[in-house]
Write a structure and sequence with these properties.
By secondary structure, the chain is mainly beta. It has 4 helices and 10 strands.
Length: 205
Amino acid sequence: MPTDAIDNELNLSPEIIEGSPVLQRWREEVPNVLEEIRHDPAFRTRVRLGYSHFPSTQDKGGFNVGVEDIFLGRTGLTLSTNYDRVFEGDRQTFGVDLNYYVLPLGSYINVAPVVGYRNITTDSYWTDGVAVGGKIILPLSRTGAADITFSQLFVSPGSADEVGITTFSVGYAVTPDLRLATDIQKQNSIGDKDSRVGFVLEWMP
């Protein structure tokens, strides 16, 4: 239908149309709203800073910092990075991950294979190498207000220094741009088992 005919049918004045970018867009082409909802991310980038408790390392305290899911264009690719360590001692972990979400980003559940790098230092062992695994995320709100994430990674898989890292995280927004989150993490190596609990403040830019 011609745009003039649509304007006449809706009884829209030129002033209303000129002041509304949405109406101008719809006059040119009716968007596929369902498709946009499916591909508009149901979760957001999170900048994280928090306190870490290490039960397996004499109950020491520490800190964690990182960024989760930096979107690389309008694709399913995201980049994440994190660092945690004790305030006093040698235990620390640094990592960078590339995630590829296989379902539309607007889905209320998504799965991503993960490939990245980890450097792990504890009182008992040291590991440095490629990390591979997967992640499941359940965005409970499209605004980033709440989500649940589970991930399993293997660092230096197949080697004598292999370490498995299991992480469970829950986040809940307290303002439109700030969230509180809790992480529970287990690190399992051939020679030792370690644990970490994080209490995190997250900013969603």
